[in-house]
Specification:
Elements (H helix, E strand, L loop, with lengths): L2 H6 L1 E2 L2 E2 L6 E4 L4 E9 L2 E6 L6 E3 L4 E3 L6
Antiparallel strand pairs: 1-2, 3-4, 3-7, 4-5, 5-6
């Protein structure tokens, strides 16, 4: 998805997160770093490393501080 398309894309009133941003996936109940975008999904990787997963942008919330 091009930068312009990402800036315009909204789901549930929020913008699609940028690569490098830390977000919380409310469906899987875990935090991840945005690694990329593929079609309608956002690819996330666990903060401690590990296997990436696809997430719906509408289920993501920005993380402003470290979660316990």
């Amino acid at each position: 998805m091009a930068t312009t398309e990402r800036a315009q894309a909204t789901t549930a009133g929020s913008k699609v997160p940028e690569v490098g941003q830390v977000v919380h996936d409310t469906r899987r109940h875990k935090d991840g770093r945005v690694m990329g975008h593929e079609g309608p999904y956002v690819q996330l990787r666990p903060l401690g490393g590990g296997r990436e997963w696809d997430a719906d942008p509408g289920a993501l919330e920005p993380v402003e501080r470290t979660r316990p």
